[in-house]
Design goal:
The complex is a heterodimer of chains A (46) and B (378). Chain A starts with a helix and ends in a 20-residue tail after the last helix. By secondary structure, chain A is mainly alpha-helical. In chain B, 69% of the residues lie in helices and 0% in strands. Chain B is globular and about 65 Å long. Classes of the chains: A mainly alpha (46), B mainly alpha (378). The interface between A and B is small, with 8 and 10 residues.
């Protein structure tokens, strides 16, 4: 049981940690920083 | 290429998992026509040749140390001190930044492993070139330890395919994930949200104290994580590399601290530097009958060596000196209590005394590691 909880906690922290790092690295504008978008909005042409 | 250095990126993990999978899946076929030590040797040489920058320097250094080892063994172990100096010379030149030929990755660890192999070959038997190479250049421990022992490594090589079991995969994996959590999550977060937010040039006392605690926390997660990953992956390959950390910041005194923090370095320094030096110092007439002084001199010299081994900068050396002073003070106190002196910790109940000792040790380590970090604004 102790092993199960320990392992569960480790994986939970790993998932939360890596998710945070991935989100943090890829969605900079969520943290309020200005990021120049490279996405072109096609409808603006109309 | 850079991502292929041990634990430096996903590519390294993919490569090593492929190798582990290959070993486990094909072990029953492989064992009919190739020994485990040979397959490991070939894999290591290929890895070093293709993925380690300046591989030719490592291979040249390997031949150099093996030649010294061979001469030493051929002369029936008559002289120990001289071969040690010859082995350590490239590392010393490297530390002094003199000789670019020996700017070899992991040279400090390789040198210590070589010295151990040479000294212990007298008692534990000779290593073949294949075993010697695998021991020195084993990829998971190449850059930053743990510092394994050759006779233990040799045993695992001889067991070979026997150690490639599902149980070892499980054991190794459990240690590996703790290492990944420590190094890539905890150390990363401590660095991002705590350590890197502190101005290391600040001369405000609060910033200096904060920096010391942050670095101590970061160092533990980073290094213990690295070591755990090295141990975990090694066990998955059937090599039981010893653990390097065991709750070091819970140690109540310096002696215990070095049995828990960078354990393999502590035990290496004890066996191959402290003990011979302690024995040697007894020969001086001026020191005869002064056991405590000899012990303390040997302790401080050992920690100074540790500092210099980390690098020839004042902060590494001073950090080693501080650890030496702590250990000497503890040693004097232990002898004082043994001789009937009053143990001041007995004033408190056991649990409080233990935690008080831990508090003192932890803060001593924080001060020494503050200098070790080089983030000193003095």
């Amino acid at each position: 049981m102790k092993y199960f909880f320990r392992t569960f906690l480790i994986y939970l922290l790993l998932i939360i940690g890596f998710s945070f790092i991935i989100i943090d690295e890829n969605i900079d504008d969520l943290s309020g920083q200005e990021v120049e978008s490279t996405v072109e909005f096609v409808y603006e042409a109309f | 290429m850079g991502n292929m250095l041990p634990f430096s990126g996903l590519d390294f993990f993919i490569l090593i998992f492929c190798f582990i999978l290959f070993l486990h899946v094909f072990k029953n076929i492989l064992k009919n026509f190739i020994s485990y030590k040979m397959i490991l040797f070939v894999a290591i040489i290929l890895y070093i040749s293709f993925f380690i920058p300046h591989a030719q320097k490592i291979l040249f250094f390997l031949i150099y140390v093996y030649a010294v080892y061979w001469i030493y063994v051929s002369n029936k172990y008559q002289e120990t001190f001289f071969p040690m100096i010859i082995i350590a010379l490239p590392m010393i030149l490297h530390k002094f930044d003199i000789d670019p030929i020996f700017k070899v990755i992991g040279i400090s660890y390789i040198t210590f492993r070589t010295i151990q192999a040479i000294v212990d070959s007298h008692n534990y038997g000779k290593l073949s070139f294949i075993e010697f190479t695998s021991f020195l250049l084993f990829p998971t421990t190449l850059l930053a330890g743990p510092i394994d022992r050759s006779y233990r490594f040799q045993e695992d090589l001889q067991k070979g395919y026997e150690n490639l079991t599902l149980s070892n995969i499980g054991k190794g994996w459990d240690i590996l994930i703790v290492g990944v959590l420590f190094k890539f999550i905890f150390a990363e977060f401590v660095n991002k949200f705590w350590l890197s937010t502190i101005d290391e040039n600040s001369i405000v006392l609060f910033d200096m104290v904060n920096s010391a605690y942050a670095y101590t926390t970061y160092l533990f997660f980073d290094f213990a994580g690295y070591s755990a990953m090295a141990v975990g992956l090694s066990i998955m390959m059937g090599i039981y590399v010893p653990m390097n950390f065991n709750h070091p910041y819970l140690a109540p005194n310096p002696q215990d601290f070095w049995r828990r923090f960078h354990i393999t370095l502590g035990s290496w320094l004890t066996d191959y530097f402290f003990k011979p030096l302690y024995k040697y110092l007894h020969k001086f007439d001026i020191l005869k009958g002064r056991r405590l002084l000899i012990q303390n001199l040997a302790i401080i010299a050992t920690f100074l060596l540790m500092g210099m081994w980390n690098g020839l900068t004042w902060y590494f050396i001073f950090s080693g000196f501080l650890f030496g002073i702590f250990s000497a003070i503890h040693n004097i106190y232990v002898v004082y209590v043994k001789k009937g002196g009053f143990d001041y910790f007995t004033i408190f109940p056991n649990i409080i005394a233990l935690n008080l000792k831990r508090f003192l040790m932890l803060n001593g380590a924080v001060i020494a590691l503050y200098f070790f970090s080089g983030r000193v604004s003095i």
